[in-house]
C-alpha cells in the first residue's frame, strides 16, 4: 500500500471542504468538521493550508477551476444546436457535486474587502472569459459581436444569481425552465437566420 | 412637539436596519448597533418586532417593497426607448440608498430553510413579476411573447448576481457597461424591427 501523493492528499482536503460547506454551511465548516467528512486528522489540513481562510480561498479556486475545465472540455466539442442541453447537464453536475452549494456558502461568508471576496471576483472574471468564448461562436462575425464582452458579464451575473436562488430553495424547476427556453430560443433564432 | 406615529417609528427602525446592514454587515447588525444608527433606544426595536430574525425578515420585505414601488412608478411612465437609462438611474439609487448592500447582507445571512431564505424567494418572485410586466411592453404580440415568464426569471437572476458582484467590489463599471449595452442594444433592435 502506498501513501497518497502530496497533491492527492491536498485534493482530498479540498474535496472534503466542498462537501462540508455544501452539507453544513459556512459557519459550521470548521477544521474538525472537514476532517470528519474526509476521514483524516485535522492536522492534515494545517499541513497543506495555513489556516481556514487560506483553505476557503483555495477551495473556491479549486472547485471553480474543476468546473471551468469541465465546461471548457464539454462545450468545445458541442455543436451550437446542442449547447442548451449541454449547459443543462453541466448545471445539473454543478448542483449534484456540491459545487453550487459550496460556492454560495463561500460567497455568503466572504466579508467585503476580504481576500475571499477578491477571489470571488477573480473567479467571476474567469467564468466571464469562458462565457465570452462560447458567445463568440454564436455572434462572431454578426452585428452583435461587439456585445460579446457585456453579454458575457450578463451571463455570468445571471448564472451567479441562479445559483443563489437554487441554493436557497433547492428547486430545479427554475433552472429547467431557463434551459427549456434556451433550447426553444436557439431553435427560433436559428430558424430566423436560416430564412 | 408631537410623537411620531407607530408606523413612522416602525419605519425608522427599518431604515436604521438597512443602514446598519449596509455599513456594518450582517454579523455586526445587533439591536444595539441598529439603535445607535437610528438614534433611539434598543427597546424601541422590541416594541415593534419580536426579535432580530423577525426584524430582518421585515426589513427585507420593506426595502424590497419600497424599491419595487419606485421601479413600478418610474417604469410605468417611461417610454420604451428611455427604459435603459431609467434602469441605470434606478440601479444607482439601489446602490446609493444602501438597498443593494442590505439585501446582499440579508441573503448572505439567510440560512437555507430559514424563514429569511423563504422571504428572499418571495421577494424574488415579486421582482420577477415586475420584470414580466416590463418585458410584456416590449414583447407582447410578438413571437417572443411566450418567453416573457422565463426572461423575467433570467432578468431577476441576472439582477441578483449583479448585486452580488457590485456588493463585493463596490465597482460600478460592470453595471454601467451593462446599461450602456442595453441602450445600444435597444436602439439596434428598434432599428431592426423598423426596417
Topology:
The structure is a homodimer of 195-residue chains.
Chain A lengths: L5 H19 L6 H8 L3 H7 L3 H25 L6 H14 L2 H11 L5 H25 L8 H22 L3 H22 L1
Provide the descriptors you would attach to this structure in a database record.
homodimer, 195 residues, mainly alpha, 9 helices, 78% helix, elongated
Number of strands of chain A: 0
Beta fraction of chain A? under 5%
Could you give the order of the helices and strands of chain A?
HHHHHHHHH
Characterize the biggest β-sheet of chain A: none
**Portion of residues within helices of chain A:** over 70%
- Helix/strand-derived class of chain A? mainly alpha
Identify the overall geometry of chain A: elongated
- Per DSSP, the total helix count of chain A is 9
What is the oligomeric state here? homodimer
Condensed summary:
With 195 residues, chain A is mainly α. Helix content of chain A is 78%, strand content 0%.
Description:
The structure is a homodimer of 195-residue chains. Chain A has helices at 6-24, 31-38, 42-48, 52-76, 83-96, 99-109, 115-139, 148-169, 173-194. Chain A is mainly α and 195 residues long. In chain A, α1 (6-24) packs across α4 and α7 (115-139) packs across α8 (148-169). The longest helix of chain A has 25 residues, at 52-76. Chain A is elongated. The A-B interface holds A 25, 107-112, 117, 120-121, 124, 143-144, 147, 149-151, 153-154, 156-165, 167-170, 174, 177-178, 180-181, 184-185, 188 and B 25, 107-112, 117, 120-121, 124, 143-144, 147, 149-151, 153-154, 156-165, 167-170, 174, 177-178, 180-181, 184-185, 188.
